[in-house]
Design brief:
Blueprint: H1 31-56, H2 66-86, H3 99-126, H4 132-141, H5 150-177, H6 182-187, H7 193-202, H8 210-237, H9 240-258, H10 264-281, H11 286-307, H12 320-349, H13 364-370, H14 378-386, H15 388-393, H16 404-435, H17 441-453, H18 461-464, H19 467-499
């Protein structure tokens, strides 16, 4: 999924204004072939579900874990949308009607659904995990380890310290933005969404200080981890102080995620809370899951009504029916289709219009260090081809799709074949590592945040050039360093008392 402030989520590829200038001969699929593709898709889904069950122990939504989360992400964000595109069920002219292109894109998604869990199974063999269900059950049955050792207590102090730092950084950033905050204009009654989108793209930028801007962005992303820590501590001890900590951090997280009117990060954070609850207790009740699903749809509806302006110009009557209807429409037409659409765009322009990019977009820093040419990643190239007028004006944004989009744009067929295997291996390796760790509140939060940071929904390079993992590990190490400093301070204070 993503870091809460990751730029790849700043703009979705799904835009009503997109219209390709490419023209292809219209073609129709016969009813017999229609049925054939449906049957093949269902067979692939069954095989994928069987394989994913081997990697996750269960696919029950009540017992969600890192592996099963990947299955549902790919099911909703890629599998269903690829079938919709193949059959031309999308009224908007987002992708070409070249049947070969649509068929090849569909085949790529079907292959990904099977290769991903195979990569996970390979990781289980490498790390000697005979039955993933046993390892997961053992972890879930264990109670949260609240060790009262000096280090664990110091870690808690360190987390509280960083909570104060993060809260201060987020609040300072919002105050410094002043009237440039998009959400402020919305509260003031503005319906000029074009202007607010321009403000959104510049939100969080600090002129003349890239270092400070990076620090603020880092703290905004860190807020999610701290909120998960607070929730884990509260669930373990049911202490009012931890509840106040949780409320404070959730407030900071929500503010940092919605002040620039982004939608996906807030939804992702709430999914993270559900995942964390499931990891702690081993399951989530059907009642809670049903209520969460209803609220999820309602929240999507509200976010698209107010942040996207889907009802601008109409007589808005915010009844429950209108909100739910908008949520369902956004879910069906934006989430199920919007994320995989750009994959078909990548297949359209690479390599016919643009050459495969290879490693040229891996990272600006390493390219400058090695003196190699650097090129923008696939999302910027896609927008420059399909929306050149917006790209030239600098407001085109960044197209996003699941990781196989960049796999094709960078490496072509070989990338498409190898990427799902490697991504599955990468994710399951970390999953196994987390399950073998102590079930402490901090480790639970680390595992949950990792699930949300995975760039599986928008890029491949994060799995072969994982700077996000290095940054995440650095954050965790800093927490431990500060915890050690607290331990030394406590020892220095207690030593004179013992001497006395």
């Amino acid at each position: 999924m993503h870091s809460f402030a990751h730029p790849a989520h700043a703009a979705s590829c799904c835009r009503n204004s997109y219209r390709s200038d490419h023209t292809f001969p219209e073609a129709e699929i016969s009813p017999l072939r229609n049925n054939m593709y449906i049957v093949i898709s269902l067979i692939v889904l069954v095989i994928s579900a069987i394989l994913f069950k081997k990697t996750s122990g269960t696919l029950s939504l009540q017992r969600l874990n890192l592996s099963s989360l990947v299955f549902y992400m790919m099911f909703f964000l890629a599998f269903i949308g690829s079938i919709e595109i193949l059959y031309g069920l999308i009224p908007e002219e987002y992708v070409s009607n070249d049947q070969n292109l649509l068929l090849h894109g569909w085949m790529g998604v079907m292959y990904m659904m099977i290769a991903l869990p195979i990569g996970m199974i390979i990781a289980q063999e490498v790390f000697n995990v005979k039955q993933m269900s046993v390892l997961i059950s053992k972890f879930r049955s264990a109670s949260i380890d609240i060790n009262k050792s000096n280090l664990d207590i110091s870690i808690r102090y360190s987390l509280l310290f960083f909570s104060l730092v993060t809260a201060g950084a987020v609040i300072w950033n919002i105050i410094s933005q002043g009237e440039s905050i998009p959400l402020l204009h919305l509260f003031m009654g503005s319906d000029d969404y074009s202007y607010m989108m321009q403000l959104r793209r510049s939100a969080g930028r600090i002129e003349g200080s890239k270092l400070l801007e990076g620090f603020i962005s880092l703290q905004a992303g860190f807020a999610g981890l701290l909120a998960f820590c607070a929730y884990s501590f509260w669930r373990a001890e049911r202490n009012k102080k931890h509840l106040y900590w949780l409320i404070a951090m959730c407030t900071i997280v929500v503010i940092s995620l919605i002040y620039n009117m982004t939608k996906a990060p807030l939804i992702t954070f709430l999914i993270g809370m559900l995942l964390l609850h499931t990891i702690i207790y081993g399951r989530i009740s059907r009642r809670v899951l049903s209520v969460a699903g209803f609220l999820f749809i309602a929240l999507i509806g509200l976010l698209f009504i107010f942040f996207q302006g889907t009802l601008v110009g109409s007589d808005i009557n915010l009844s429950a029916g209108v909100i739910i209807t908008q949520g369902i429409e956004a879910f069906l037409h934006r989430i199920l289709f919007g994320q995989i659409m750009c994959f078909f765009m990548c297949m359209d322009i690479f390599p016919s219009s643009e050459p495969f990019m290879g490693l040229s977009s891996t990272g600006r820093l390493i390219h400058e260090f090695l003196g190699l040419p650097f090129s923008p990643d696939y999302g910027i190239v896609v927008m420059s081809v399909f929306r050149p007028e917006l790209a030239e004006s600098g407001v085109a944004g960044h197209a996003t799709t699941v990781f196989i989009g960049e796999a094709w744009a960078n490496f072509g067929l070989w990338g498409l074949l190898i990427a799902p295997l490697w991504v599955g291996f990468f994710i399951q390796s970390f999953h196994i590592y987390f399950l073998r760790r102590r079930k402490t509140p901090f480790n639970l939060a680390i595992q949950t945040q990792f699930a949300l940071l995975m760039p599986i929904t928008y890029e491949l390079k994060g799995f072969y050039y994982p700077m996000w993992v290095i940054e995440y590990i650095a954050q965790i190490i800093i927490v431990y360093i500060v915890a050690k400093l607290f331990m030394r301070m406590k020892e220095n204070i207690s030593m004179p008392m013992r001497d006395a």
